[in-house]
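Q: What would this chain look like folded?
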Amino acid sequence: MKKISTAKMKRQVAQAKKWTIGMDLGDRSSRYCVLDEHGEVIVEGSVAATQPAMEKLFGTMPRCRIAIETGCHSPWVSRQLHGFGHEVIVANPRNVRLIGEARAKTTGWTPGRWLAWPASIRIF
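A: My prediction, written as structure tokens:
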């Protein structure tokens, strides 16, 4: 998949109608996947797992639905994203795993997409 630059993603913000983002939180960095209202991937990337980096990326986006897994970083990340006006879903890892196992493992989907896809169709 072709990587889209952050600058190009920011240009697309003005055209955004309803994005859904799945974010796999890590200790040092977090992987995310942005889907449009049709479930098509707009961009996949990573962001440092720090408050300033999250603010730089998600603070200027229009209101989105963002799904993250429960974990040690999910409390502060969910509070920060909610503070930016986003709808935040903290998903149970067991439910996400069941969804992932129900689909073919050969899809090559990233963990962020496994979170974004069910959130986009309101499974959780």
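The beta strands are 20-24, 29-35, 41-48, 65-69, 87-91.
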